[in-house]
Amino acid sequence: MDRGFRMLDRPACLRRLPSGMLATLLLCFICGVAAPCFASPVKGRQMLAATPPMGWNDWAQYQCGYTAQDILANAKGLVKTGLAAHGYNTVTIDDCWMQKDRDAQGNLQADPQRFPQGMKPVAQAIHAMGLKFGIYEDAGYETCDGLAGSGEPDGGGKDHFLQDTRLFASWGVDYLKLDGCKVYVPAGGTKADAYRKAYAAQSAALKAVNRPMVFSESAPAYFQGTPDWYDVLSWVRDYGQLWREGSDMANFHVKKPDDPRFHSVLWNYSYNLPLGRFQKPGNWNDADFIIGGADGMSLAETRTQLALWSMMSAPLILSSDVGRLSPQAVAILGNKAVLAIDQDALGKMATLVRRNQIMDVLFKKLSGGSYAIAVLNRGTSPIQLELHPADFGFAANAGCRLTAWNLWSGTDQPAASTLQANVASHDIAIWRVHAAPSCGTPTRTGAIIMVAAGRHRDMDNDTRCLAVSGSVEDCAGTSAEAWTITPSGALKSAGKCLVPANGKPSMQGCSARKDQRWKYTLLGNLVSADGECLTASGPDNQSQPLSIQTCGHNQSDQIWSLPN
Ligand code: GAL
């Protein structure tokens, strides 16, 4: 059987629950029709990371240039600035804390230069400040900086996952980031299998030690740009609470303190945004650190990173010198109303409503019946924009009015039938919105984008959108790129529905017919009622015509991202 269909045939929730639970089966069946089916939290065990983790990590600011004093100074900084009270409460020590060699018992040893008293007193001091303590290790035989890893030795042998996890538990570790450098791949085995084995072993070790630790997995980042990426993204949720999917945020360099770093914010945002189908409360895509407020980032760019990450329900892990953050940066990073968008209980990924060369419009459903809207300006000049309720899938009637609370200024726009955005260069507007009852519940409306795993797309001009003309083109933000995913799984635009007629999709009048329904799989395929895949053929620097073809496994011209 084609592996691409496994998820449809045996979704995670069917695998986890006893048979005979008719209601659950039914629910799984329904969610399998139009959206990926997710596993329910394991009963009886408290869900870890029910909302995206928040905290601080040394890496992007210091790399290996830190000591215990720097870590503790930043922990104090979190408390002093009030950022800890706003939720940034986990202090994680990244690579370089350990030595290259283990001791005679095979235990990891903290670097005596950085941690002259060992690691435990540092953990205790962090706990004494009311914070949580996180640590870095690696699933390979060495960390990225060549120090002792937890994984199998190079050439094979016994791993140290359980032994290291016991040590971490004895120190009081609350959060483990497991990187993926130098993972040993046995001859004849695949890289993907080797990573899965290592992360599964770490997950088993965490269960065995019986101390709750949030588990951050870096595995997918080692497959970014390859078809295996999607497979790895499909299993990390079985083992941990969050995962890095891609490249690092640009680091601060002491020798080049003024190097601009906003480009890395935009890049990480662009690869994280299309992955909404993989996340849910307890399982988060991690777009990497918040470098907002640090060198190389303006205040506008700081606002932008925090708001984008919050619209994506991404983990908020600061990586800066907290003591050097300006009061303005602290105010932005601690903006309660924006943080509430990130920490919203539904944990939704924002929908990309519209994208053109310089601007993105985002929409996110929140718990309690409100919504968040954001407008990003990537360009060099200010933009002005008028938005309408129908852009977000609300009913287009005269009575539909939106009340919008501007989360930066704290001011309310009284109920109105339009929303006016004025956004400066590199800045972002963000509102919490309430809709009048006549607006109804919004349908899933926005762009349908094609994400080619094999290509590093520069989002400024290279994201591909499904257009109503029946082809895939560079996103231009026109109404021809606005789609609604109906509850039955039809793809609707300008009053018509996309139908796979004789292998060539075309726009036809919408009906309840089965052939108008598409299944959206976890791997990102849009599957017709006949079990074939929506495909955009041809070179992806031109207009690519649509066709219906046999589904391949992680075939880049068959992977789509839909409104959430
Ligand atoms: C990278 C990782 C960074 C940091 C670094 C340490 O692979 O993405 O966040 O942990 O390794 O060497």
Describe the 3D structure.
The protein folds into three domains: 295 residues, TIM Barrel, CATH 3.20.20.70; 89 residues, Golgi alpha-mannosidase II (Immunoglobulin-like, Sandwich); 113 residues, Trefoil (Acidic Fibroblast Growth Factor, subunit A) (Trefoil), CATH 2.80.10.50. It is 23% helix and 23% strand. It contains 14 helices and 29 strands. An eight-stranded parallel sheet has the order 7-6-5-4-3-2-1-8. A six-stranded antiparallel sheet has the order 9-10-11-16-13-14, covered by helices on one side. α7 crosses α8 and α11 packs parallel to α13. The chain is globular, with a radius of gyration of 24 Å. Beta-D-galactopyranose (GAL) binds next to loops.
Quaternary class: single chain
Unique bound compounds: beta-D-galactopyranose
Major sheet details: 8 strands, parallel
Number of helical segments with 4 or more residues: 14
Compute the CA-based radius of gyration.
24 Å
Shape: globular
Number of strands: 29
Task: Tell me, rounded to a whole number, the average pLDDT.
Answer: 91
**Runs with pLDDT <50, length 5+?**
1-44
The percent range for strand residues is 15-25%
Structural class by secondary-structure content: alpha+beta
What strand line-up does the widest sheet have?
Answer: 7-6-5-4-3-2-1-8
CATH architecture title of the largest domain: Alpha-Beta Barrel
Helix content: 10-25%
Distance between the termini: 29 Å
The CATH topology of the largest domain is TIM Barrel
**What number of structural domains do the residues give?**
3
> Briefly, what CATH class of the largest domain?
Alpha Beta
> What is the fourth-level CATH superfamily of the largest domain?
Aldolase class I
